[in-house]
Amino acid sequence: STDSYTVAWICALEEEYVCACHMLDEEFTGPEISEDNDDNTYVFGCIAKHYVVIGCLPAGRYGTNSASRVARDKVRTFPRLRFALMVVIGGGAPNGFGGVIQYDLGKLKGGRFQKTGQLNAPPEKLLGVIPEMRRLYSDRKKPDRLAEHLRLLDDMEDYQKPAVDRLYASDYSHVDGQNCDKCGLHSVVHHPERQNHHTLYVHYGNIASGNSVLKDANVRD
């Protein structure tokens, strides 16, 4: 029944939605949803002991308004939800704000754009597990769980890590395309390989998001 689901997972893009569904330990047929009260389409499953319902924003609809409508319908349909997580592509934002920074909400003052929009910090329950997550991830005796989850995408060619992973200067304008095969090598930043046992680094902190799709590195920085 809808009462069984306690975690909602919301994606903004189809690419994120496909990856999210691959992260489920098990996918199964869920309860019937009344179309009169909910316009969303869902994938049902579980991760460990948690029953998860995954939904995606409608095709071509981005931003906080669309996300709010998806979340509103989810909360109405699944009354026992404990958390609704927006899991999307985001940029790390090292500053003193308390939550997600909305980079395109603000005001012009003195010829400069000043950000005024931000969301609240995550619930205390989620913040409370971060110290334990950090401890487990830094313990070399523990298996790399994130790497195990990433291996679930090994059968998806479009989501695999490239054989040569280049880092470009942040002010470089990339050539349009699915990858960087046509990008110039003059702006590649050479850096030493990571010397730890993890496949990736985890950013614990604020991220920047907004209603507009941001693909310009200079504007982003």
From TrEMBL:
GO-annotated biological processes: nucleoside metabolic process
InterPro entries recorded: NLR-like, Nucleoside_phosphorylase_sf
A single GO molecular function term of this UniProt record: catalytic activity
Matching Gene3D superfamilies: Nucleoside phosphorylase domain
The organism's place on the tree of life at top rank: Eukaryota
Span of the signal peptide: none
PANTHER family in UniProt: AAA+ ATPASE DOMAIN-CONTAINING PROTEIN-RELATED, ATP/GTP-BINDING PROTEIN-RELATED
Protein name: Uncharacterized protein
Species the sequence originates in: Aspergillus ruber (strain CBS 135680)
Lineage, highest ranks first: Eukaryota, Fungi, Dikarya, Ascomycota, Pezizomycotina
